[in-house]
Amino acid sequence: MGTLRNDNILTLSDGRQLGYAEYGDPEGYPVFLFHGNPGSRLSWGLIPGSPFLPGIHIVAPDRPGYGLTDFRKNALEHWPDDVAELADHLGIEKFALFAPSGGGPFALACAWKIPEKISTVGIFGSVGPNEPEATKGVIRSVRLLWKISNPLFPIIKLQMRIMASMAKKDPEKMSLKLRDMELSEWDKKIFDRPEIRNIFKVDFPEAYRQNGIGSAYDVTIPARWPIPLDEISIKVHVWHAEPDVLVGNMSKYIAGKLPNSQLYELPNTGHLWILVHMNEVLETLVPDQS
Q: For residue 250, which of 142, 144, 126, 132 has the smallest C-alpha distance?
């Protein structure tokens, strides 16, 4: 089975709209997947091998300010309530949870606030606190964004609005520009595969549907990190690509602060590793469905 439906909308109890896609087996084991920055619910149906494993039911919500999900102030802190409401709406009592990159903090927020609903949680290349130990290895342009994002948020919003315009007009051109500016040599090898380039071509316009407000907000998270990692009791599986230039040492830093974590260190690869290894991650997180 493939895509069940990718344009679902739930009206939350406060009146906001939450968009989500479903992939795989509707009777399968539920797995919630949170996209990165930029990204949307559509990306999980575009990654080669989707829905990755037999016997799983993927629920892929748009995070606040992306795709079909309305933005709200302090989106990260309120996200676990939104996810719990979505799970209740779908009749799901417990689910596995995974998020890469900019989705990592949102997965950790759920692990902190609604652990009773999560069977297991995993993150890959996650964004983390803006601490010197964590940001080691991050390229200068990204470190600068994190530094200025809170005091100069209007400028960040304007920058993301410009990127949104580019993404809607010519997503392939924009993705190639980001490739040349931000990706390591490891990541360029993955990006240059036609099936991987197609992910960004299709996903970017949806990711920037709301003119980049979700992306702008995500950039503010490292400097104002609100999640007490030492209070997360559930076990967290953490995948860390050692040469990752977009988040540097953040995943490894997070794993070291969590009371109960399993760290998987990946040499000779980068931030896009997850796009060709989703099945391996899910095999770790999801009970054997055979």
A: 126
- Whether the bond between 38 and the residue before it is cis, its omega within 30 degrees of 0, is yes
* Confidence check: pLDDT of 289 > 70: no
In sequence order, what are the beta bridge partners of 20? 8, 61
Element (H, E) at 162: helix 153-169
Q: Is it true that the peptide bond before 51 is cis, omega within 30 degrees of 0?
A: yes
**Structure token digits, residue 16:** 């906001």
Q: Are 101 and 246 in contact (CB under 8 A)?
A: yes
Are the C-beta atoms of 4 and 41 separated by less than 8 Å? no
Closest C-alpha among 144, 105, 122 to residue 226? 105
Instruction: Point out which residues pair with 237 in neighbouring strands.
Output: 122, 262
Is 128 within 8 Å of 257 (Cβ atoms)?
A: no
Domains of the chain: 3-285 (3.40.50.1820)
For 153-181, the pLDDT digits (tens) are 999 999 999 999 999 999 988 888 888 88
Question: 0.85 exceeded by the pTM?
Answer: yes
Residue tagged 């084991």 (tokens): 29
